[in-house]
Structure formats: C-alpha cells, structure tokens
Amino acid sequence: MRSEHEEKMERLVGIMKKLRSPEGCPWDREQTHKSLKKCLMEECAELMDAIDAENEHEMCEELGDILMNVVLHSVMAEERGSFTFQDVVDGISEKMIRRHPHVFGDESVRNSTEVLGLWDRVKKLEKSDRKSVLDGIAYHCPALLQAEKLQKKVAKYGFDWSNERQIVDKIQEELNEVKAALDSGDQTHIDEEIGDLLFATTNLSRFRKRSSAEELLAAANRKFATRFRYIEKRLSEQGKSLEESSLSEMDALWNEAKAELKL
Q: Are 242 and 206 found together in one domain?
C-alpha cells in the first residue's frame, strides 16, 4: 500500500506530466532543460532571500518551486527515456548513504573536519575518471563562489597562503597592477587586472573561514541599496529628484545615511 507521502509525490509528477502533454500548457510544452536554467537560478535566489529574511512561509513556498523544477526536468528526461524522478530520488538516497559511511557504515569520525576528509576520499572513488582536482567545479555558479571553490581545492594540497597579511599584500599588488593597466589605456589588460584583483580579494574572505565572498558582497550590496534609498527619501522630503540634485548634495546625504543608519 502506498503511503500518503508517495501519493502526494505521484500527484506532483502527474501534474507536471499533464502540463507537458498535448492537452496541457503551451508554455510548459515548449520548455527545454536549457530554457529552464534561468528559472531554476531565480528560484534558488528567491529561496536564499527567504532564508536571509528568516521567513519560513516563503522558504516553504520557494522550496516547493525548486522541487517543481526538479520534477519538471525529470519528466522531460523521462519523455526521452533517459531517467525518471524515481531515478533521481534513488540516486540521491544511495549517494547520501555512500557518502556517510560514519553513519550508515563502519567508519568513525571525531569531528566535522574528519567528515570533510572522509567525503573527499569517497568522492575520489566515485569520480576516479577526473583528470584534475579542479574537475567538477560548476562553472555556472556565481563567479565569486567559483573562485572560492577553486581556491579551497588547491589549498588542500598546500597551494595556499600562510596568513592574512600575505593576502592583503597580494591585493595591494593586484591593485597596483590595475593602476598600471589604467595608465596604459589597454582596455583588455584593465579587465584582466580587475579580475585578478577580485580573485585575490576572494582569497582573503576564503582564508578567514567566515562568511564567503559571495555573502560579503551580497551584504555590501544590501548596505549600499539601503543607504541610496535613504538619499532618495531625503531628497523627496526636500521636494527634489535625483536628476535635480548635485553629486555634492548626494555625497552629503550619503554621509548622513552612514551616521543615521549605523550600517
């Protein structure tokens, strides 16, 4: 006898199959794995916003949207005879058991650091065909997160800095190279040096083992947006628009926002 949970999952799969059928939705029938990439990225971003806002209702809704995307991709694959949603569920279940031998097997670990080492050993066995330790890093993830993953991979083999000050010196070196590139007027070279500067800055946040560069930049973005909205609000109170205001006026209000908002 099927459980209530199984019936509900089958209902969701059935809904997605109906939407993809000739009698279903024209939009859903037109979609491909590639066309849905943007949708999945947006749903993941909305989930992260809900997590940061600690809004559990929205978290539940956004997790549902992500699950819908997983089921839709699986239904599309089933149409080709490639795999089914059940295959997806079975595959991740087996992977979780395989990658937690300290829970489901005879391995023992003392802390989370040893867990990470155990995971690495298991993953190496799973991915034995990889030629580089950098293989497997997703190039569709945000660039700052990708940079951090690259740095973490090579750090495991000793290719890393010894302290934060060394990285700060490297950031200064890269900043000097940006300045030199600006003096040269070579736009391609300027772009390259800005990228190197961002990569070096990411190394500092990664080395500190606190918030990721992605999280730090997101926080800086939110802080900037909050302060700029303060400028807009204060100008509006003065009966002025952004277009009617000078840079010096906006700078003064920016400093006011910094003092008032304590961000």
A: no
Amino acid, res. 184: S
In a domain, 188, yes or no: yes
The C-alpha angle 134, 139, 144, rounded to 5 degrees, equals 90
Burial 235-257 (b: 16+ CB within 10 A, else e): beeeeeeeeebeeebbeebeeeb
Torsions phi, psi of 242, nearest 5? -60, -40
Output the domain CATH number for residue 185: 1.10.287.1080
pTM as predicted: 0.70
The one-letter code for the residue type at 30 is E
Alpha helices of 31-84 — where are they, by DSSP H? 37-52, 56-79
Judge whether residue 42 has pLDDT over 80: yes
State residue 186's pLDDT score: 97
Q: Is residue 64 part of a domain?
A: yes
